[in-house]
Amino acid sequence: xxxxxYIVFLLIAVWGLNVFxxxxxxxxxxxxxxxxxxxxxxxxxxxxxxxxxxxxxxxxEIGVTARFVSEKYFKMICGIQAELNxxxxxxxxxxxxxxxxxxxRAMSYLELPLLAHLAFGKDKGNGVRFVLNLGPQVSFLIAExxxxxxxxxxxxxxNGVNVQYGKMxxxxxxxxxxxxxxxxxxxxxxxxxxxxxxxxxxxDFYNSTKKDYFSRSAHSCIGAKLTYLFDLKK
Length: 234
What we know:
- The protein is mainly β.
- It is built from one helix and nine strands, in the order αβββββββββ.
- An eight-stranded antiparallel barrel has the order 1-3-4-5-6-7-8-9.
- The chain is elongated and about 65 Å long.
- The chain starts with a helix and ends with a strand.
């Protein structure tokens, strides 16, 4: 719990310094507002306690993006970025017995990241920038689906954990932190951004009281995405 609080406080501090900079620090103000679309994939897993053996599960993500660049501080371009995404996460179990079984859970979320946006490189006109995005993310579970082999034998798993089968999420609200970086190519027809991200879940989707089986059930995923933005205001 203390580790989670430290991460949250650090995130708030970084985000706040970017969104509410001191007037004395303003070097060159900007009023650039851009909107667009994004899409990509999540390589997802879930941190369970007791542990469940997993292999990589790949799910899609698609959404819309809005970005406001407010200033240039020395060589660092600063702003905020918000997204509204449809994103799937979940897990795929690594079953090592000879049954031939396979199991995967897909969990569909509407997610809202609110990110501090930092960029380095070409300031105005066409060119390339290196971008960093970091901030909190909240999500709401709208659907989940189990996918399993035709001949399914969940009774005897090698690690002895099988209570997750048929058990839907107890909590639909999810929150955590997300961060990543990539390259932005600025052209005459818009901005193209290739980015890698990591999401660390701070909440559990199963109840985690002393009487519950799982003490932790939090999402974790690495994402790769492509975003296209066009300027509404330069």
